[in-house]
Amino acid sequence: MNAATADKLAEVVSYVFHPLLVVIPTLVIAMVRLGSTLGQAIFWTVLSIVSVNVPMAILLFWGVRSGKYSDASVSIREQRTSIYAVGGACLVILLAVLIIGKAPVIIIACLISAVIATAIGYWVNRHTKLSLHSAAMAGCTAVLLWTVPLIGVIMAVFAPLVGWARIRLKHHTPVQILIGWMVSMICVFVVFQLML
After folding, report:
1. For the segment 151-191, what is each residue's pLDDT rounded down to a tens digit?
2. CA 116/CA 5 separation, integer angstroms
3. What is the 3-state composition of the chain as percent helix, strand, coil, each rounded to the nearest 5?
4. Which of 38, 58, 75, 103 is 20 to 30 A from 82 in CA distance terms?
5. In whole numbers, what is the pLDDT of the chain averaged over residues?
6. Sign of the four-CA dihedral 139, 52, 162, 152
7. What Å distances lie between residue 106 and 17, 103, 111, 120, CA to CA?
8. What are the tens digits of pLDDT across the range 50-62?
């Protein structure tokens, strides 16, 4: 594989397993597996998309267009503070709505894990970047390993590919990939152990 082909593959992998996308099927699958109807799972997932994914996508689009962010991956560590602040605020608001709305316990556990991982990511970002792609991939893999092990194993096979893509595109180092994996997987497993 030549360099141009490898770069193109890395870009495709980064888009397919984007943090704002990979969580969508994960939430639906986990909720249905633990007893929600497909309609309920779709409702809570769409609410999550509107509350978190859409505002974050708008922030990224605006940030790149205005020059506030260097690129769609927000490759410069110092520029990521607003990503964590807005993302964290959106997650906390969504968590409150889920609790008040008596959402399924699994999605509440996912959101608590995400809030904790985001807070840790904010702290880590003061020293080095944490790969959000790897964090999302590892968090979703952990959720699926807990709820639907076979799908979780399939996701686990793709996690190193996502890490390779982020390194290949020079957005992250191997250490930043590992930090992303560890933070989110530990958060999911600890919260799930306490709540499910």
Report:
1. 999 999 999 999 999 999 999 999 999 999 999 999 999 99
2. 37
3. 80, 0, 20
4. 103
5. 96
6. positive
7. 22, 8, 9, 21
8. 999 999 999 999 9
